[in-house]
Structure formats: C-alpha cells, structure tokens
Design a protein that fits this description.
About 45% of the residues are buried. The two termini are about 25 Å apart. The protein is globular. It has two domains: about 5-210, inorganic pyrophosphatase (n-terminal core); about 215-340, Diaminopimelate Epimerase, Chain A, domain 1 (Roll). Strand 8 (about 235-240), helix 10 (about 245-250) and strand 9 form a beta-alpha-beta unit. It is built from twelve helices and twelve strands. It has helices at about 5-15, 30-45, 80-90, 105-110, 140-155, 160-175, 185-195, 200-210, 215-225, 245-250, 295-300, 320-340, and strands spanning about 20-25, 50-55, 70-75, 90-95, 115-120, 130-135, 230, 235-240, 270-275, 280-290, 305, 310-315. By secondary structure, it is of the alpha/beta class. The strands form two sheets. It has a six-stranded parallel beta sheet with strand order 3-2-1-4-5-6. The structure holds guanosine-5'-monophosphate and manganese (II) ion. Manganese (II) ion binds next to loops.
Length: about 350
C-alpha cells in the first residue's frame, strides 16, 4: 500500500463526525497494540475528541508505565463498563489485528455494534469485518502505519511527548529493538523524528526490557535448560512450559514474552515454537528466520495467524497431545517448506 490518501480521506471523515470513539487493541495486547492504541488516543485527545480505550484482556506489566495505560478498560475485568463503551461508540477503531476472533470475549458485541468500524493493521490476510480496512504488511508495526496516517490527516507530522513514547514502544517491541521484522529506512526516519522530539530512549528501553523480576530471568533459564527440545533434522526447536512451571516461578503476564525467539539463534534452526499450557488449551507462538511461513502453519493447524516470521495460535487439548499433534504436522509439512528456509 503506497497511496495513503485514499484511506485517510475516509478515516478523517469518520473521525471528524464521531462523538464517541472507542479504540480497541487485540487479546493479549503486545507493545505495538498498546503503543498504537495510546498514540491514537493522545492524537485524538489533542483534537478535543471524546475517546475511550478497551483491551479484551489484561495488559502486560512492562507496558503499564506508559502515559494513559491506566485508562485502558479491560473487558474481562470490567464488562459492564466496556459493554457501555461499545454501546455508546459511533466509531470503533481496532488496532494491530485483522480478524474479529482477536477481540476475545468482546467479539460478538463489537461485531454487532452499529458503530462505523475501522481496522488499522500490518498482519497478512485481513478479514472483511469492518467499514474500512487499512492494512499494510510491509510496515514493521501498526504504530509505524498509524503515524503515517496521522501525519497525513494532520497535514504535518503530529508529535507530543506521550504520543512519541507510545509510538517508539510500538516500533521497538515489534522489531525486537530493530533486530527482526519488516523495518525499513522509513522506520528509521520516523524514529529519528521521535528522538529529535526529545524522548528518552534509554529510559524507555530500561522500562521495556530491563524491568524483569528475578523469577522471570530464572524462568527463562529453566525454559532453555530443561524445556527446550532441538530437532536438528527438522531445522526446528520448541520450548514448552507447564502451568506448574509458571506457578513455580511466580509467573506474571508477559514473563514469557520473547522466549520463543531464543532458539532461532541456534545454528541451523529456522523454526521455533513455544507451547504454554493454559486452562483447557495450549497457547502457541511461532517464529522463523528466512522464508518459513509461520502464519500459514499457524492458521492451517492452530486456528491462528500473524506474520511470515512471527505468528501464534491455540489448540484445545492437553499439552502432551498438542505437542504430539504439532510433531505430526511438523513432520508432514517441514519438507514442503524446506526450499523456503
Ligand atoms: P506472539 O507469539 O508474540 O503472541 O504473537 C506473534 C504474532 O502472532 C503477533 O503478531 C500476533 O498478533 C499473532 N498471533 C498470536 N497469537 C495469535 C492467535 O491466536 N491468532 C492470530 N490470528 N494471531 C495470533
Ligand atoms: Mn504489531
């Protein structure tokens, strides 16, 4: 997508005529989802709009310091208020996801709402469930795309302190601090402008990356030492964590973020999977380097999706059965993908 003006005209019209805008991030919101959500919030507030925010479930600890994060209403924690917000909204802007099942338990309420609905996102294969879809998988993050849209709507680049911090968190987390993902020279131009605006890069990095509990670091050591299985013959590795493992290390939301990337630094490993045991199901994360299409694997076998190199899904069975099923489909499919590695 190159010509943004085609989309910004309609988006701008929706925003101008909205009395109550609701911004929604996806279930298990990551730094990009919350970053983009807060950036859009701060921009719309600066225009005097009436804006609220909602997330389907809880926000991870390492994002709670962000300006405005305490204003995000969590659907599963405060249903009554969130239902009211959905009811009242005449414009719903959804960020960093492109399928309604990423709304979690709010899915039905949002999809039947009469509000104008907009998706702004950078994942592959967007679903058709809104009035306007602004999707660009070539962007490193929804935050980057959002900033371009806002700059276009605003006439000049919009930057305020909380906006710049939120955007920076979105870009940094979705690229693993500029390690992976589809960042471009354009990303760095935006980052340069954010730095010029005076954000404290070191402070933000410390809040996002160097703010873990000792239990979290020990859990990472345990996961790599005791729970990682390397399958060189399949150029793959996986990590699994049981509910008990998480309990033993006093797990809090977000603690396992990033673990799935670690096996990819092993020579000859191109595909990494993490299994996290939940109540009645298993949450899976997939990462690859090169051309292994994790989003196809996730959507075909694990009711999920995402990007080429980073996806997720879930499987409603025990951890053991999920791993066995995974090994079966991996073995059946790995050769099909091998020429792409
Ligand atoms: P993570 O592994 O960090 O949870 O997610 C990696 C990527 O996959 C993110 O872009 C996220 O949006 C996507 N993703 C994670 N879980 C799911 C899922 O259950 N369904 C879909 N469609 N995408 C997912
Ligand atoms: Mn994203």
């Amino acid at each position: 997508m190159t010509d943004l003006s085609k989309y910004t005209k309609e988006l701008s019209k929706f925003i101008s005529s909205s009395e109550n805008t609701l911004i929604i991030s996806h279930i298990n919101p990551d730094g990009d989802a919350i970053g983009a959500q807060l950036a859009l919030y701060h921009y719309l507030k600066s225009r005097g709009k009436n804006v609220s925010m909602m997330s389907p479930n809880n926000i991870q600890e390492f994002l709670k310091w962000m300006d405005g994060a305490d204003l995000i209403n969590v659907f599963i924690r405060d249903r009554k208020k969130c239902i009211k917000l959905i009811d009242k909204a005449d414009l719903i802007i959804m960020l960093d996801f492109n399928h309604p099942d990423r709304l979690g338990e709010a899915e039905n309420l949002v999809t039947v709402s009469h509000a104008k609905k907009v998706v702004i996102d950078h994942h592959l294969d967007p679903g058709n469930f809104t009035d306007l879809i602004i999707s660009d998988p070539s962007k490193c993050s929804t935050s980057e795309l959002l900033h371009e849209l806002i700059s276009e709507i605003n006439g000049v680049q919009f930057i305020s302190r909380p906006y710049a911090e939120a955007l920076y968190v979105g870009i940094v987390t979705d690229t693993g601090n500029f390690e992976y993902g589809s960042y471009s020279s354009n990303t760095f131009r935006i980052v340069a402008d954010l730095l010029d605006s005076g954000i404290e890069k070191e402070r933000i990095l410390n809040l996002v990356y160097n703010n873990f509990s000792s239990d979290r670091i020990r859990l990472q050591g345990y996961a790599l030492n005791k729970r990682m299985v390397v399958l060189p013959e399949y150029k793959s590795a996986y990590i699994f964590l049981t509910k008990n493992d998480l309990k033993e290390y006093n797990h809090v939301k977000g603690d396992t973020e990033g673990f799935v990337n670690l096996p990819l630094s092993i020579k000859g490993i191109y595909f990494s999977t993490m299994f996290i045991e939940k109540d009645g199901f298993v949450k899976l994360s997939f990462r690859s380097k090169g051309k292994f299409p994790t989003h196809e694997f996730a959507s075909q076998y694990f009711s999920g999706g995402g990007h080429l190199n980073a996806s997720g899904g879930e499987y409603y069975d025990t951890l053991d059965n999920t791993i066995n099923y995974f090994l079966k489909v991996l073995k059946e499919n790995i050769w099909r993908f091998e020429d792409k590695m």
